[in-house]
Design a protein that fits this description.
It is a single chain. By secondary structure, the protein is of the alpha/beta class. It folds into 2 domains: 52 residues, no CATH class; 99 residues, Rossmann fold. It is built from 4 helices and 7 strands. Strands 4-5-7-6 form a 4-stranded mixed beta sheet. α1 links the parallel β1 and β2. It is globular, with a radius of gyration of 15 Å.
């Protein structure tokens, strides 16, 4: 599952390595763009428009990926619990998001609940949820007119 799949930038990169991806996003417009790209995605793709913070799925996944979405989620502990419940045993997570920043990353903060994260606190939430074999590292640095913003990648297993 790609949580916060948007227009499919991340899932299109991993599609050749998996048999199927469930794309979950709350935005109808983002899902529409992804829908228009379906023929170019190299795996079976299911697109779901839903708010995973309020709804659930009756499906289990081998892996959950997410890029630059978690800072838009108010309750981190709850979303990690949801991820944990949606994973098969030994399933994996790979979550990329911003290091703590001053709020300048978004020019408009509509729907932004966190100005990035302290890596140790983020890691602790995942650990307290039950994830194991956790690792957190710098994945990239986003260059914007307002500054340079480090992005970390958290990986782990259920």
């Amino acid at each position: 599952m790609d949580f916060g799949s948007g227009t499919g930038l991340l899932l299109s990169q991993i599609a050749t390595h998996v048999g199927e991806i469930t794309a979950v996003d709350i935005s109808a417009s983002m899902n529409g763009v992804l829908q228009s790209k379906m023929n170019a995605i190299d795996c079976k793709l299911q697109i779901l428009e839903l708010d995973l913070t309020k709804e659930t799925l009756n499906t289990k996944f081998d892996s959950i990926i997410s890029s630059m979405t978690i800072h838009h989620i108010e309750n981190l502990q709850e979303i990690f619990k949801k991820f944990y419940s949606l994973l098969n045993d030994n399933g994996t997570i790979a979550i990329a998001d911003l290091d703590k920043e001053d709020g300048s990353f978004h020019t408009e903060d509509t729907g932004v609940f966190h100005y990035g994260f302290d890596r140790n606190e983020f890691l602790s939430i995942a650990e307290n949820t039950g994830f194991r074999h956790l690792k957190i590292q710098t994945a990239s640095i986003m260059d914007k007119p307002t500054g340079n913003y480090p992005v970390f990648l958290l990986t782990g297993e259920k």
